[in-house]
Specification:
- The chain is of the alpha/beta class.
- The chain has two domains: 152 residues, Medium-chain alcohol dehydrogenases, catalytic domain (Quinone Oxidoreductase, Chain A, domain 1); 146 residues, Medium-chain alcohol dehydrogenases, catalytic domain (Quinone Oxidoreductase, Chain A, domain 1).
- 29% of the residues lie in helices and 28% in strands.
- The chain is built from eleven helices and 16 strands.
- The strands form three sheets. Strands 3, 5, 6, 7, 8, 15 and 16 form a seven-stranded mixed sheet that branches. Strands 11-10-9-12-13-14 form a six-stranded parallel sheet, sandwiched between helices.
- Helix 8 links the parallel strand 13 and strand 14.
- The protein is globular, with a radius of gyration of 20 Å.
- The two termini are 21 Å apart.
């Protein structure tokens, strides 16, 4: 008799810690029209996953819900109208939660995994690289020869932004709060690394100015907010683009409108998932391009650790405590 149950990581209540997150046995879900059931081989953790556990992300699923956005695996079953074949290697976003033995995904959110790409790297790829592409290309209009300043560079999305910045021909300056991460960020493609935390308010203006001959950074990728956003205003170039990705630092910053006027820069909001939902044709083009780059070996996703799903708490704590350089992947 076929097994009808699977393990899944479920959040059954919102809290500031992981109190309501537990491994549970659930029925294996069935795909509907246009949907694919994926046998999950690897799933990667994203910072929004932790925010959802607290009800602090833009998307607020009602508990109980299965945790996890990004996955890679093989097509196990398909709904009506699906073109993907059984057994195909795929990666993308889960509708029912990625941290489970099986997940339901809309076919439109899945991409074929290149033969030369290991499954853990494929699981680490979708959300981070779509976010980086929407940020730097669609919203930031980053040009070859410009200077890109990446905050929170050791996180999964920061590493992806550095990687795409390098690919697009920019000079990449990375910031991090840990001197121990300097070498890893240099290996990942940063031309220069600035370690924060040695001065009040995480001051880095003078270092950025010195590295850019007084001009400042053309594009600033900021998933941190707070003091980092405030200081970024002081070292952005004229006609620069300050990209607001998130608020991992905890404080939502604000800016007096005379500053963008006088300094001639733009503050640009980035919601990559919503951008792709609002403009589905552009979203498909973006996904096609980042996966083509992966197949060509032009991008270099970084997996910091691979852990079995049973060690989910260890993975969550690594992200919460900012110990990662890249992504952590869980394997059911």
């Amino acid at each position: 008799m076929a097994n009808t149950m699977m393990q899944a990581l479920v959040c059954d209540g919102l809290a500031q810690d992981f109190t309501h997150v537990k491994l549970r046995d659930l029925s294996i879900p069935e795909p509907g029209p246009g949907e694919v059931r994926v046998k999950v081989e690897a799933a990667s953790l994203n910072f929004p996953d932790l925010l959802m556990l607290k009800g602090e992300y833009q998307f607020k699923p009602e508990p109980p819900f299965t945790v996890g956005m990004d996955l890679a695996g093989v097509v196990d079953s398909v709904g009506q109208g699906v073109r993907l074949g059984l057994g195909a290697r795929v990666a993308g976003g889960a509708k029912t939660g990625a941290f489970a033995g099986f997940a339901i995904c809309p076919e439109a959110t899945l991409q074929g995994v290149p033969d030369n790409m290991p499954t853990p790297l494929a699981a680490a790829y979708p959300a981070a690289y779509v976010t980086a592409h929407v940020s730097l290309v669609a919203r930031g209009h980053l040009q070859a020869g410009e200077t890109l300043l990446v905050h929170g560079a050791s996180g999964g999305v920061g590493m992806a932004a550095m990687d795409l910045g390098r690919l697009l021909g920019a000079r990449v300056i990375a910031t991090t709060g840990s001197s121990e991460k300097r070498e890893a960020l240099s290996r990942a493609g940063a031309d220069e690394v600035i370690v924060l935390g040695h001065t009040p308010g995480n001051a880095f203006r003078e270092e950025v100015k010195a590295l850019t001959g007084g001009r400042g950074a053309d594009v600033i990728f900021d998933p941190v907010g707070g003091d980092v956003f405030d200081e970024s205003i002081r070292c952005i170039a004229f006609d620069g683009r300050l990209l607001v990705i998130g608020f991992a630092g905890g404080r939502i910053a604000s800016v007096n409108t005379n500053m963008p006027l006088i300094k001639g820069f733009s503050v640009v909001g980035v919601r990559a998932g919503e951008y792709c939902r609002q403009f589905p044709d552009r979203g498909r083009t973006i996904r096609d391009e980042i996966w083509r780059w992966a197949a060509e070996g032009r991008t270099r996703p970084t997996v910091f650790a691979e852990l079995p799903l049973a060690r989910w708490r260890e993975a969550f704590e690594l992200m919460r405590d900012r110990q990662l350089v890249g992504k952590v992947v869980l394997r059911p």
